[in-house]
From TrEMBL:
Organism for this UniProt entry: Natrinema thermotolerans
Name the UniProt record assigns to this protein: NUDIX domain-containing protein
Family, per entry: Belongs to the eIF-2B alpha/beta/delta subunits family.
GO biological process entries: L-methionine salvage from methylthioadenosine
Ranges of residues in domain Nudix hydrolase: 11-144
One Pfam assignment: IF-2B
Coiled coil residues, start to end: none
PROSITE patterns according to UniProt: NUDIX (PS51462)
Basic and acidic residues composition-biased segments: 449-458
Length: 458
């Protein structure tokens, strides 16, 4: 986090600190005896910002971890600089924080560090790991927030549900750490975390998986101690819910992969579907470009790099023609939400693809963990910026619906971590998930009993 010098200076030292995130853990590095400051303390990837911090941070990532930004590491966001003075070193620091997502946990350490650990971000606050100064403050400037989740139009529902759990985890972890100075205030913690959970539930109302996973974390916490639950219970429950969610998504992808032989058609970007396609054995993959963001292009490029099969991109308008003319064995899509009646809310274009597949007799597999099942029949469809469709000067109205609803009779199966479900079996899952919502009514212990009884539901 800080440069390797003990020499005092009148000018603030500008440094970069990058937090590398894999799934829901961040990389912490212990500074070795080879550096000049903060030896033995834990930090992120760091170094002097002698020039442009945006360029320097990528250089530091490569030098200190062996990872290449743009390949296995992708930029998420930067944050406001953290300014502070270290009186012992007689030095002022300006830290430029960054967050990057990583596809791997395999790193090669430089001589600047002698240990590396992938840990939940809240481990920075724990007593057994001394961090470099202001590390948590730097992390908070790039950590997910309710606002960043609400504004995210690049990631799927499963990924955003994990970000929501991280928001809850991080706040609970900070409240636990603050107990050491101000003492325990279970009632105040409970009110604050319940209010935060409520805002997370409203951040993306169309995404059932976000609601279900936040509800599970809160139900687990409220069920732990009855009316006396506080930040430690929320922290523990959020951490376990993250682990459970990651395991469910991985198992769902593995089950789906076993069904993906032959020629497959897909659209948009689902992390679970992408993992299934990469680990499955399709012979050819047709990818609709998925306008207006065209995230299908990114998916196609990645599949071309990570699979041995032929990858073909086509326009959204061509999906019916592709299914009619090409030998497609299966349509596979993700879901933002699966409604209790078995219909599916997903990226606009899914309905068109599924209806065309039904016309051609091509089975449609929806790949979604059970947490994506909605507890309500109500549908809240989000829309995107109209200028993404038309930004000219003519008096033309524009529509940019982000999601559509695919009828249950156009869905052949829903592939989950519990196995393959028919649309008619979804209502039973919805009933089980409704029990997790009772935490908002003070039904914590009942929610815990229900969660234990229905432990097979993610």
């Amino acid at each position: 986090m800080c440069p390797d010098t003990d020499t005092p200076s009148d000018d603030p030292a500008h440094v970069v600190t990058a937090f590398l995130r894999h799934r829901s853990d961040v990389l912490c590095l212990r500074r070795s005896d080879a550096v000049g400051t903060y030896r033995g303390q834990w930090g992120g990837v760091s170094g002097f910002a002698e020039g442009d911090p945006d360029e320097q941070v990528r250089t530091e990532i490569c030098e200190e971890t062996g990872l290449e930004p743009g390949e296995t590491v992708s930029f998420v966001r930067s944050g406001r600089p953290v300014e502070f003075e270290d009186s012992d070193l007689e030095r002022e620091w300006v830290v430029h924080p960054y967050l990057f997502d990583c596809d791997t946990r395999e790193v090669e350490l430089s001589e600047e560090h002698d240990a590396a650990e992938w840990v939940p971000a809240t481990a920075i606050l724990e007593d057994d790991r001394e961090p470099v100064p202001k590390l948590w403050t730097a992390y908070e400037r790039v950590a997910p927030t309710v606002r960043s989740i609400a504004a995210d139009d690049e990631h799927g529902a499963a990924a955003l549900s994990l970000r929501a759990l991280e928001v809850l985890r991080d706040r609970a972890g900070l409240l636990v750490a603050e107990r050491g100075e101000s003492g325990a205030d279970p009632v105040g913690e409970r009110d604050e975390l319940a209010e935060l959970a409520g805002r997370l539930l409203e951040a993306r109302p169309s995404m059932a998986v976000l609601r279900n996973r936040v509800n599970r974390a809160m139900a687990g916490a409220t069920g732990a101690d009855g009316d006396d639950w506080g930040a430690p219970a929320v922290l523990e429950s959020a951490l376990s819910t993250i682990d459970r969610a990651l395991a469910a998504d991985t198992e769902t992808a593995a089950i789906a992969a076993d069904r993906l032989g032959g020629s497959v058609a897909t659209l948009s970007r689902s992390g679970t579907v992408l993992e299934a396609l990469e680990t499955g054995d399709p012979s050819r993959i047709f990818v609709a470009e998925s306008r207006p963001a065209r995230e299908g292009i990114d998916v196609a490029e990645r599949l071309a790099a990570t699979t041995d099969c032929t990858v073909t991109v086509h326009t959204d308008a061509a999906v019916a023609a592709v299914l009619a003319r090409e030998d497609v064995d299966r349509v596979v899509v993700g879901a933002d939400t699966v409604l209790p009646d078995g219909s599916v809310v997903n990226k606009t274009g899914t309905r068109t693809l599924a209806v065309a597949a039904a016309r051609e007799g091509v089975p449609v597999s929806v790949v979604a963990a059970t947490a994506k099942v909605s507890t309500s029949e109500a549908v809240n469809l989000e829309s995107g910026d109209r200028s993404a469709v038309y930004d000219g000067d003519a008096p033309i109205d524009a529509l940019n619906p982000t999601f559509d609803v695919t009828p249950a009779d156009c869905v052949t199966e829903v592939v989950t971590e519990r196995g393959v479900l028919e649309p008619a079996e979804i209502e039973a899952v919805a009933t089980e998930l409704r029990d997790l919502e009772t935490w908002r009514d003070g039904g914590g212990p009942a929610a815990r009993e229900t969660t234990d009884r229905n432990h097979s539901v993610e």
